[in-house]
Amino acid sequence: MPIQIRKTRQKDAIRTAFLEADRPLSPDEALQEAQKLVEGVSVATVYRNINSLLEDKWLVPIDLPGQAARYEVAGKEHHHHFQCTVCMKTYELSGCALQVKPKLPRGFKATGHEFFVYGTCVDCS
C-alpha cells in the first residue's frame, strides 16, 4: 500500500504564500500571507509545515548574518539576496556576476560563496 501524503488547506496556503511572494520569507511573513488565504493558520502550523517542506526539499533556508533564517522555494539557480534595512524584507537578485577568487590558505578549497546587498527597497525609499 503506497504512503499517503496528507495535504491540507493550511499547507497549500503556506506553499502559495512562498510562491506568490517570490522572495525569501521569514516564518512570520509566511504566517501573515497564509492567513490571508486561510483563516486560523497558527504560527505552530507554519513552523511545522516549513520543517516538512524543508525535509521534502521544496524549501531551502537562506541564512542572513546575525538574523533568523528566511526560506525560499528550492530549485532556483545560484543567486544572491538584497535586504531592505528599513522593512527588513529580503529579495532575490537574479544570477551571479561575482568573479571572486579569494586568496585561500594552502590546501584550502572554496566550494561556494555568499553575497548580500543591503539598502532600501522601493517601498521604503
TrEMBL record:
Belongs to the Fur family. InterPro entries: FUR (IPR002481), Fur_C (IPR043135), WH-like_DNA-bd_sf (IPR036388), WH_DNA-bd_sf (IPR036390). GO terms for biological process: negative regulation of DNA-templated transcription; regulation of secondary metabolite biosynthetic process. Zn(2+) binds at residues 84, 87, 121, 124. It comes from Granulicella arctica. This is Fur family ferric uptake transcriptional regulator. Fe cation binds at residues 78, 113. The keyword Repressor applies. Transmembrane segments: none annotated. Keywords: DNA-binding, Iron, Metal-binding, Repressor, Transcription, Transcription regulation, Zinc. Its cofactor is Zn(2+); Mn(2+); Fe(2+). One of its GO terms (molecular function) is DNA-binding transcription factor activity. It comes from the Bacteria. The keyword Metal-binding applies. Binds 1 zinc ion per subunit. Binds 1 Mn(2+) or Fe(2+) ion per subunit.
